[in-house]
Amino acid sequence: MRKIKRALRKKAAAVMALALAALLLTPQAVWAGETRTYTGSETMQIFPGGALFSPENLANVTGNTLIINYASGMNPDCVFGAYTSLDASYNSVFLLQGHVNVYVEGGVSDDGSAIGNSVIMSGGSVGGAVIGGWSNKGSAIGNSVTINGGSVGAEIYGGYTYCGIATQNTVTISGNPILTNSILYGGFKAGAASDAWTGNTMNVKNSGMSARGVVNFQYYNFYLPVTFAAGGTMLGITNGANLANSTIGISFLSSGATLQSGDRVTLLQSGGALATGGINTTATGFSGIAKVYDFILSSNTNNLYATVSSTRQNPQTKALSEGQASTAAFLNQGADMLTGQGLQNARGASSGSGGQCGVWRQQPAL
Predict the structure, then answer these.
(1) CB of 174 within 8 A of CB of 149?
(2) Residue range 264-275: average pLDDT?
(3) What backbone phi and psi angles, to 5 degrees, belong to 192?
(4) Interior CA angle at 144 toward 142 and 147, to 5°?
(5) Alpha-carbon gap, residue 268 to 255, rounded angstroms
(6) Span 111-118, average pLDDT
(7) Alpha-carbon dihedral of residues 203, 206, 208, 211, nearest 10 degrees?
């Protein structure tokens, strides 16, 4: 096995290299997923460079659920929902409390694709990156990261690929997590990778949130709290941001919104230059099912604004049709499941194969 030559952390390098060695000695059959909970004392794979919490049987590559929930005990260095040379699909990692030293990843694949994996974080902390799905020679499609608490010390990636595509991934933030050191990526491409933008969705579900940056999202969806007032800010970032040609969606988290016609709010405030060419100039959102809000979008060098142009009652009393909610269709972006054909496309979307495409576990820089 080739050594990871450029790992920025020795712990991560040792864990990843030795875990691969163990994996290669394990028969690679598709097993039913397993559920494991770490409460501070469960068995981890211990290597000279660190501790890896993963499925007990590394041949399990689909449907695993790992739960990190402990107040004291040995900190895992890395947590992987699956770690394989096959497709890693529909695995989940839940971080409730505790600390992971380096990485948390929903699904990791070398030769295959990472499809539909997820990381859900409501507490605890991660010293390094959080990644929904990671693939070296395949693609990262339909993965998600949801963070509504805790803290992350480095980047957050919906999908990361070295050679394929990283599309249809979702990052959702809500609550009050600490993300001041994190750039949020819908998709990240390295090496010979191609598309890392199409279909990637960013959901912001609270006001007053902050991060270091946002990159590679086709859809930016802002769910305003019902108590959100004129002059408030949803998300502030310290870097600049390129939102060119993205679609901006706005809605409310529930009924009872109090914004009035003429009220202006800030959806995104950036510390650097903000590019917004080609975005939509209007949006329609709903407070509950009965009240409809029309917004006008505008921007300057550092801010993306939404101004209420009108409010009205929804003339429909039944569930909103797709046509009526066209500019609020983002509500379904994060929940859409890949179709059967989409899965086939994911497996075949790699832009290259063989040795020219990356190095096993070449991780994003911390």
Answers:
(1) no
(2) 98
(3) -90, 10
(4) 170
(5) 23
(6) 97
(7) -30
